[in-house]
Amino acid sequence: MTSSASPFDPKKTIVSKKWFEDQRKFPVVDLDKVNFPPDEWTGHRVDMSSIPFGHAFNRDALKTAVKFIEAETKPESLRMHDVGGNLRKVWEEPQTKVENEIGMNYLTYPELLSKDLASKDKRSDNMEWAQEYNNVYDKHLSIPVPFVLKSFERKKEASPTDEKKVEGQVQAMKIMFKASGSAQKIAERFTKAAQEGAQIKKIVGFGLGSVKWDKLCGEEDEVKEQNAGFQRIWQHFTAFCIADALTRVYCETDKKVEIVLQDPCYTATDKKFLAKHSPVRISFVRDPKGILQVDSETLVMTAFLPFDVPMPSIIADLFHGQKGPAGFIWDKMILDEDKKLWRAADRATPRVVEMLKGYTRDDFDDHDIEWEVFDKVCRRLPYWLWAMDLFLRKP
Ligand SMILES: C[S@@+](CC[C@H](N)C(=O)[O-])C[C@H]1O[C@@H](n2cnc3c(N)ncnc32)[C@H](O)[C@@H]1O
Question: Pfam families this protein is in (predicted)?
Fold first, then answer.
């Protein structure tokens, strides 16, 4: 492991979000100011003052996808209704079969609503696939399907030497996490929530990432990659800490907490180490099974999902008019009821804003971290929880 000098003051013992922002001279999150180019699909603003159709993301469509993905023999193509009610192809057998997995590739609400996002200069890869499957690639016609299926190559397994390194890192992180003030605050927050009646039986984590840090896969910026890898381990320990705190409160009842994790990049090594350290039953599922497992007693956890995995919109659609999940830890979003124009990079939509009205909102901004944690886990990256919010369903 290469160690480079930390750019910050090593005499400090505690690092706050504010100190980090002052040093780096940029806010950890200021989504409105993030300059996603308006001529790209992430930054293009779309009027969502009235979402004119039913629910793009629904359980039947997701269940059809699960059935298709799990089927041993697959049809040459699969069709589904788009948001306008037209039957569209969402899968076509690839000409060459080099890939070994089939994945969900979602379209975001701005893409489902705006024809502009079908044009060659603005469209996302997923819109391109939808067009390609439906033979309109050159015509730039919008194919507003909630997702397309596409094959991809599974992440390579770790070598035995890599596994040993990963084991060492996970152990080191575990010790550091357990001793940290942030872990203590997380445990206290969820103990209080459970004592006040929050019913959380399941934690479903989306995209918490591989615990195997990516330098092992040949990334360039070694220190930054290592920090990102450590934060991913830290995110999993956060889920474990919450599960542990809830289990302690519920111990006198027959309620059992479990963890379900969905990330297409998990390898056998990830699953092995995560299962080893989880204090509760843990399972790993393929997309979209994790989404289908979310229920009203679930805490949903995501962190920095790609914009083309629009989890808040998917959940808001699935639970529209019903009791939503017990809570969420996910990226901060601007939840402005009067906002008219929305970008895929906003993650939220008016329907997400409406759903979250039934929740209390909290953040983790007061989670100061020990210098040792900062030096090992952050450095140039902010502490991940500073960019997250916590929503708990109101009783
Ligand atoms: C930018 S990384 C963030 C990883 C980690 N949370 C972190 O903070 O470093 C996005 C993660 O989302 C995962 N991902 C992509 N599509 C996903 C999906 N449909 N469901 C769950 N995870 C997904 C990726 O494999 C990757 O691990």
Answer: SRR1
Q: Specify the pLDDT at position 255.
A: 84
CA of 286 to the centre of ligand 1 (A): 12
User: Which pLDDT tens digit goes with each residue over 200-234?
Assistant: 999 999 999 998 765 544 445 677 788 888 999 99
Query: 269 near 212, Cβ under 8 Å?
Result: yes
User: Distance between CA 192 and CA 68 in Å, rounded?
Assistant: 42
| Tokens representing residue 296 in the block | 């009203």
DSSP calls for 270-293: HHHHHHHH-SSEEEE--TTHHHHH
The model's pTM: 0.94
Quick one: pLDDT at residue 82? Answer: 95
Domains belonging to the chain, first-starting first, are: 55-152 (no CATH), 160-393 (3.40.50)
Distance, in Å, from the CA atom of 162 to the CA atom of 167, rounded to the nearest integer, reads: 9
Q: How far apart are CA 247 and CA 241, in angstroms?
A: 10
First to last CA, the chain: 48
- Distance from the alpha carbon of residue 252 to the mean position of ligand 1, in angstroms: 36
Does residue 146 come out as left (phi exceeding 0), alpha (psi in the -120 to 50 range) or beta?
alpha
Ligand 1 centroid to Cα of residue 301, in Å, is 11
Q: How do residues 290-307 score in pLDDT, each as one tens digit?
A: 999 999 999 999 999 999
Residue 176 near residue 193, CB atoms below 8 Å: no
> Is pLDDT above 50 for 2?
no
> What's the whole-number mean pLDDT along residues 241-259?
93
Separation CA 331–CA 345 (nearest Å): 11
DSSP H or E stretch at residue 150: strand 147-152
